[in-house]
Amino acid sequence: MSLLQDDIELRERTVRLEQELKHQRELMLESLRQMEQRLAQADYRLAQMEKRLEQTEKRFEQVQSAVNERSDQLTARVDLAFMLWSSATILSIASLVVALIKLT
């Protein structure tokens, strides 16, 4: 009778163990599903961030182009102003030299 009772207890333990393993497997599968959902959400957010980064890069390139154009315009204006100033200075000095030569 003891063997029969031990056998029944072992079978009951085996059944409980199988049920617990099944429950653990279900929990693991649910955790994996949730992780996959989170990864999909993270992928979506990353794609959105990449789009915003591309837009920011395009805008930066536009601003850089505008800054370069403005810088070129200012450089041209400064060059013109310097050229006029140096021409006026040379002409003034030449006039002074001619006037001094005529006075002496």
Description:
This protein has 104 residues and is mostly helical. It contains 1 helix and no strands. The chain is rod-shaped and about 150 Å long. The termini are far apart.
Into which percentage range does the β-strand content fall? under 5%
Mean pLDDT: 93
Described by the principal axes of the CA atoms, the overall outline is rod-shaped
Helix proportion? over 70%
| Category from helices, strands and their pairing | mainly alpha
Low-confidence stretches: none
Overall radius of gyration:
44 Å
Q: How many strands appear in the DSSP assignment?
A: 0
Distance between the termini: 148 Å
Q: Write the element-wise H/E pattern from the N-terminal end onward.
A: H
Biggest sheet statistics:
none
Q: DSSP helix count?
A: 1
Summarize the structure.
98% of the residues lie in helices and 0% in strands.
List keywords for this structure.
104 residues, single chain, rod-shaped
Helix and strand layout, with pairings?
Blueprint: H1 2-103
